[in-house]
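retry 2 of 3: previous attempt timed out while embedding zinc ion. Reduced batch size to 1 and resubmitted. Inputs unchanged:
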Amino acid sequence: MTRDASLAALDGRIAAVNDVLNAASVLTWDSRTMMPAGGAETRGHQIATLTRLARDLLLAPETVQALEAAEKAVESLPEDSPERRKVAQTRHAVTHHGRVPASLIQERAALRTVAQAAWIEARAKSDFSIFAPYLEKTLGLSRAYADCIGWSEHPYDAMVSIYEPGETARSLKALFARLRAGLLPILDAARARPAPRSDFLFRDFLEEGQRAFGLSMAQKLGYDLNRGRLDTTVHPFEVSFTRNDVRITTRYNRNYLPASLFGTAHETGHGLYEQGVDPAYTRTTLATDLVGLYAVGGTSFGAHESQSRLWENHVVRSRTFWRLHFPELQSHFPQQLGDVSAEEFYRSVTRVEPGFIRVEADELTYDFHIMLRVEIETALMDGSLAVADLPAAWNAAIARDLGLTVPNDAKGVLQDVHWSTGYLGSFPTYTIGNVMAAQLMDSLRRNDPGLGEAIEAGEYAGLAEALRTKVWQHGRRFQREELLLRETGRGLDPAPYLAYLTAKYAA
Ligand code: ZN
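retry 2 succeeded.
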């Protein structure tokens, strides 16, 4: 076979894997937007079956044969060529899944269903003891999973590598130490100032106006509605079925305007990344997470989060944005916002207020919520923290970092769904996204002084084009650290993030 024929044979196999995973994603989107509650159980089976079929297709002898032929065919190509990367990533995924027995996957899936039900009950009753035995089992299976994949220094490394290749318990500890030291003085300075006026955010905002403004904003940022749509959900998310159908969702709170505004901006950022992947990568390994078995074009969870945070916080949560676009928001809500200035609005949506709930946290306190979770996950994985001691450890960390006394487990250790799903190791990617967003933005501004002026004028196409060129188009060809090195000359570096937060919140 020629090189092209060998690669085409492998592409053909992976295209089928990608199709099956995209079909599973459509079912997921439906379950979180349209599906009646009664459909949950059978839908869970449907998605699990499709995911298993995708894994079987990947591990099938035909795929492995095509992979071996392709490996020989690409030997002489540059290491970072799209062809070599496709082949190497497929090999990595085949090795990964080959190490995990089907019985363990089934055990994890079965546990997930009952653990989530227990978590829902525990949270409703604010009683950690209901969830504790399931978390204990989840940890046991997570350790078994980590041992299958393999790790050298810490079992947590194996879990993190699924979401953020390259990060480890050790690297995260170093990153967090720098962040904690840098964030605390900024937080202290912000808290020393009087709280701005924010009463108007809690007035009555009809969904219609929120949706109209959200759609207009998404389009301003470059989101293509011909290949996308905006729907309503409980927990906002973005999901794509190839770059040609990239959907975002939001949640409208009639009595709290920022929820949908910044939620929509955030998901738009995720959507722009997926819409911007090179069309040539459609249905290939470079637009498929073959390890996580998820059809996604972005290269890691952290890189994805960097794009949502960049648009949400650096563009939309800025003084410039509201100076330019607040009159449009006012036109949807003349009564509710008639007595508010653009500056007052900006100050209200950047007010700093330590709280218990991660998803409601402001920019300055958000990372403390993440660092606490990662410290706890790491200690749970290596056994240095017992499940029974988890609520006390949680509450102590919230008191230490944010100066708050957690009133009950529902507002503390039981607030997130993550641990009940068995997904340990994804929390660090939120903070990595924050750090990476600032690092990219800093570099793009330095390299193109005209970019800042365009953003000041409300023209976002230049920023979108720069990100498309530097990040989006590459899909999964480059890892996060490679993208950063190519654009900024450095690996992940918290200095620009701390400088950005200082300028915004401490100056
Ligand atoms: Zn996100």
